[in-house]
Amino acid sequence: MKARWFVRGDWDGFIGLFIDNLLQLLLIATLCPLACGIPVTMVVTILLPGAAVSILAGNLFYSWQAWRLAEKTGRSDVTALPYGINTVSLIAFIFFIMSPVWQATKDPVKVWEAGVFACLLSGLFELAGAFCADPLRRSAPRAALLSALAGIALTFISMGFAFRIFASPAVALLPMLLIVIAYAGRIRLGIPAGLLAIAIGVGVAWILRSFGISAFTPPGDPVPFGFHPPHPDMTAIDALLSGGNLWSFLSVIIPMALFNLLGSLQTLESAEAAGDRYETMPSLAVNGAGTVLAAIFGSAFPTTLYIGHPGWKAMGARIGYSALNGLVITVLCLSGAVTAVLHVVPLEATLGILIWIGLVMTAQAFQETPRGHAVAVAMGLMPSLAAWAWLLIETTLRVTGVPLEKALPSFGSDLAISGVLAMNQGFLITSMALSAIVAFAIDRKFLSSAVTCFVCAALSSIGLIHAYKISSGAVLPDFGLLKAPGFTAAYAATGICLLCLHAMKRFDAKSGIPHG
Fold first, then answer.
1. Residue 475 host element (H or E)
2. Which of 313, 339, 367 represents a domain boundary (last residue)?
3. Residue 503: which residues within 8 A CB-CB, separation 6 or more?
4. Could you report the per-residue pLDDT of 462-494, keeping only the tens digit for each?
5. Per residue, what are the HEC states of 344-397?
6. Do 28 and 143 sit in the same domain of this protein?
7. Engineered SS bond to 80: which of 1, 66, 156, 364, CB 3.0-4.6 Å?
8. Residues 404, 274 share a domain
């Protein structure tokens, strides 16, 4: 039978995917000025048009891919892969790359350059990884991959926005609870639960405002409507070739690219389990190419395949919902309408979706790993908690105006601040590594655990993890030989101990002695 581009269920799928994508745009328009110093006009005229290019190209490709699969198989129930801006990467790039550059330079152009550099490099890693994703996924314990992701979800995605929700309970708490209840309870309401909850939050906000209750204050005047076409820019390429100290952010970029790659691979597996088998290499290659395209056109935020393909399929969405989402999001980005949406829709009313994402990702780390690896997952959460703690400390010092160099010695024994800073530096890699060491040891794979320790020793020896320096009121990575000698020695010694355990295990096996 001939495949249909649009069916009734595509409306439900479009609304859900559109809200998800719109939330990312609202976060960019809100957080870039607040956390990174990038003016709203720069967001509207450069970042969002650049993101639109990637979102449109990706959604059109995955719709075409679904149409081709439907034509090939003669099925009418093929569902396109959902695609858009990556929430986790967005938060990570803003708080761990762009915000530190803003604190160090107070130059929005340099902040933007750092963002497009990270975006381009992430896309290139994902593009290259499309050809080797399967071996990587098979070799790494799932606990190591999911615990680091859960750590970000629990702290930087959930907690920060939870504070904003509980600071505006009249507008934000009801939508958040409705979203969590509806999604966790799998309650079908006839319309997307996220749309209903946000609509209720917006209605409550404006009703209270009409009675003079200040539950929602729209931001300043929105950027006037207009046509803001995307322009290819060499900034990303120049930053890649002459990145200078931007390469210090590899400890954030590489893990995020790895997460995006493996998350996309898991999305393909999830789609196949639901009945739609898409080819791995082209699907992942276009996923990475979309991020590269975004950076070339000035966006600082990667795009990726979204998890949840079976959910869209269960809604009745098929092919057209993805293409329609790309077209509508592009119109919003190129017209400058995103800031107008913020003028009407309180951001707090939409944050329940992020809370749900954070809860699901945290739960997944425990649910989708072997039960015996729960300790490894918990171990992997700690570096993210340390990074979150440092963000709170740094924010407090900045708001109070206390110089960093003066404040750090005064912590004394009340808080081992040097330990917080050491765990914060390269925390994503540390999270994966610590979880992997424990997971391998639980499975009695002592050799693999030892190798992971030696890798950590090498990374700490060059300052990619744990090494830091304080300069101009900011904590910066400290690259060089033996910048964290204590960590290098400790990891190496642990690796040697694990090698001894491996040797004992082999000896016991040869001798017929059970090894416990």
1. strand 474-477
2. 367
3. none
4. 888 898 888 766 777 777 888 899 999 999 999
5. HCCHHHHCHHHHHHHHHHHHHHHHCCCHHHHHHHHHHHHHHHHHHHHHHHHHHH
6. yes
7. 66
8. no
Q: Looking at the structure, do residues 362 and 378 belong to the same domain, yes or no? A: no
Q: Are residues 165 and 209 both part of a single domain?
A: yes
The predicted-structure confidence for 352-368, as pLDDT tens digits, reads as follows 877 887 787 788 788 87
- 361 and 381 in a single domain? The answer is no
What's the CA gap between 318 and 320, in Å, rounded?
A: 6
Taking only Cα atoms into account, the Rg of the chain, rounded to an integer number of angstroms, comes to 23
Is 378 exposed, middle or buried, given 0-12, 13-18 or 19+ CB atoms closer than 10 A?
middle
Using DSSP, state whether 115 is helix, strand or coil: helix
Domain extent, residue 315, equals: 9-367
* Counted domains in the chain: 2
Do residue 396 and residue 355 come from a single domain? no
The answer as to whether 2 is a domain residue is no
Q: Quick one: 351 and 475 in the same domain?
A: no
| Residue 3: inside a domain | no
What's phi and psi for 244, nearest 5 deg? 55, -125
pLDDT at 220: 64
Within a 10 A sphere around the Cβ of 203, how many other Cβ atoms? 12
Calpha distance 339→41 (Å, rounded): 10
Integer Cα distance of 329 and 346 in angstroms:
19
Distance CA 445, CA 279 (A): 33
| φ, ψ at 468 (rounded to 5°) | -150, 160
